[in-house]
Amino acid sequence: MGATEVGRIVMLADLDYFYAQVEERRDRSLIGRPVVVCVYSGRTEESGVVATANYSARGYGVRSGIPIALAKKRLLGTEARFLPMDHEFYKQVSERVMAILKRNVDGFEQVGIDEAYLDVSNRVANFHEAEKLARKIKDEVWGSESLTLSIGVGPNKVIAKIAADINKPNGLTVVDDEDSKAFLSPLPVESLVGVGRKTAERMGQLGIRTVGELAAFDETALINEFGRALGAYFHRAANGEDEEAVQERGENESISRMVTLKEDTNDPKKVLEAAYTLCEDVVSKARERGLLFRRVGIIAVTTDLTIRMREKSLTAPTDDMQTVKRAVKEILEKHLGGNRQELRRVGVHISGFVRRMKGQSQLTTFI
DNA sequence: CCTCCACTCTC
DNA sequence: CCGTTTAGTGGAGG
Question: Does residue A339 sit in helix, strand or coil?
Fold first, then answer.
């Protein structure tokens, strides 16, 4: 970048309908028909939800998060295929694609399995060159993986993300500095990262429906309504301002596992049996990474699908299975005891990581 | 300041 | 009709 330039050029690359597209790639017979990748809960033959659907299926109203049974109803009479998630495989494909992205940029920040922010400020002189680079990246990914992606190019992460969303699949949208405000202004507030259904509703109460209206709203009032960090972020983002750096993310700061129980219950024995399996999972994950942890918690989803979390801090960092199981038992019994509601799902969560030093035992010595 | 936990969001 | 995983903010209360 020239010394006079102050602006950045940031991209957001987003693999299109990722899981379903990967399935289309490995089985060409899927192409041209609705494809629905499912998370089966194991409770009954088809209980579970849709993880991702291809655009053919989306045409029938099939979206992420809807029950599989509902998706089947909507796709009745079509040649639709329903496939179980194959997370390991998607992860391998993702890693190969991310490697391609990485070698084309200076700054890289992966967000989830199918998205990454790319900082190309030092690699291209202007937005026109950035567009050419984006095209090259798309060609490379297509050439070696036969996958399409959508890329948004902008002066910062907020704009790049929205630009990528605006035109998919297989899109490429460039929004340069001068166009930012005009680009953002008419969009619904939900276009901004961090504004979901609930927040959009609250903004609606304030008479804010578009990003332009949000940009014009008093910042102090936003801070009052949404808190210091969020309020200030909404104000800046709506005005097209965002200084967030493109930065590689560190290690995860928590590990959790969750399962759907065979049947709704509040029998501690049944819930604990499931929870103990989850303990084994999370503890071995932590050990693989050489981590001790200070907090253990449970997640309980009741019959009416409300979610509760309970956690406690341990007196010392550990990765000892018995300690974890005891903690989980204690928290769970306390919760089930004071709660008549039956559970549908249960989860175990650990956090407060401390890297295990060489020679450090999991039984920390008290001084 | 720390702990707990609700809430929101994302893939 | 109903999953999974992780991050982050912020309020309440110690």
Answer: coil
| Tens of pLDDT, residues A239-297 | 999 888 898 887 788 899 999 998 898 888 889 999 999 999 999 989 988 889 989 99
Look at residue A27 and tell me whether its pLDDT is greater than 60: yes
- Of chain A residues 61-100, which have a beta carbon within 7 Å of strand B? 64-65
* Residue A340 domain flag: yes
CB neighbour burial string for A340-367, b if at least 16 within 10 angstroms, e if fewer: ebbbbbbbbbbbbbeebeeeeeeeeeee
Is residue A307's pLDDT more than 60? Answer: yes
Closest nucleotide to residue A46 (Cα to C1')?
C1
pLDDT at A340 over 90: no
- The whole-angstrom distance between residue A70's C-alpha and the CA centroid of its chain comes to 23
Q: What is the CATH number of the domain that holds A138?
A: 3.30.70.270
Number of domains chain A is built from = 3
Q: Range of A341's domain? A: 254-355
Confidence category of residue A3, pLDDT binned at 50, 70, 90: very low
In 10 A of CB A49, how many CB atoms?
A: 17
Residues A225 and A306 in one domain: no
Nearest nucleotide over every DNA/RNA strand to the A331 CA, judged by C1': B4
A108 and A157 assigned to the same domain: yes
* pLDDT of the residue at A1: 43
Distance of CA A356 to the CA centre of its chain: 28
Sign of the Cα pseudo-torsion (A39, A167, A158, A9, in order):
positive
Pull the structure tokens for residue A223. 């801070």
Shared domain for A109 and A208, answered yes or no, is yes
A166, A100: one domain: yes
Strand B reaches within 7 A of the A198 CB? yes
Global model pTM greater than 0.85: yes
Q: Which of A97-101, A203-207, A249-253 shows the lowest mean pLDDT across its residues? A: A249-253
Which nucleotide in the DNA or RNA is closest to residue A256, CA to C1'? C5
In this complex, the answer to whether residue A230 has its CB under 7 A from any atom of chain B, a nucleic strand, is: no
